[in-house]
Amino acid sequence: MSDLRITEAFLYMDYLCFRALCCKGPPPARPEYDLVCIGLTGSGKTSLLSKLCSESPEEVVSTTGADNIRKYWSRYYQGSQGVIFVLDSASSEDDLETARNELHSALQHPQLCTLPFLILANHQDKPAARSVQEIKKYFELEPLARGKRWILQPCSLDNMDALKDSFSQLINLLEEKEHDAVRM
């Protein structure tokens, strides 16, 4: 075999190896999930989501928190695959009780009761913020959400790493649900 053919053969093999290692095409598409984000006015839904998405809060249309709109939350539920419930952990007792009732209602709603929940105890940077343990006890999450998949996480705009970690945990729950559906 001539030197030219050997060189061509090696070049071709190098090309195939390069192609096999580096050019497998575009990375696989990441799954997309439809999530509904609910919470009382002032809980921080718009601020958290806009900061998480690196968007200006003015560009995000805030509609779900207003007291007169709360009765229409269920219209947003259809097609949702997960729920983000944001509560103000530093709110008044009255607002905390209202948030508790709304969360209980959402956890028991027929369209949401089987979905994973990410409950964000926002405003942890404020002096009056209640701890996750206090919120878990006050909201009676252990008995109410038994058998459901939920995560209660502290958060604030000052700690985006913790917020991103919370969403990673929610994605893990969503992926588990997807795998469970495939197995059935």
From TrEMBL:
Q: Which InterPro entries match?
A: ARL15, P-loop_NTPase, Small_GTPase_ARF/SAR
Indicate which residues the UniProt annotation says bind GTP. G39, L40, T41, G42, S43, G44, K45, T46, N122, H123, Q124, D125
Domain of life, per lineage: Eukaryota
Q: Does the keyword field hold Transmembrane helix? A: no
Positions annotated to bind Mg(2+): T46, T63
Question: Mind listing the UniProt keywords for this protein, alphabetically?
Answer: GTP-binding, Magnesium, Metal-binding, Nucleotide-binding
Under PROSITE patterns, the record lists: ARF
- Indicate the family of this protein: Belongs to the small GTPase superfamily. Arf family.
What name has this protein been given in UniProt?
Answer: ADP-ribosylation factor-like protein 15
Q: Which gene encodes it?
A: ARL15
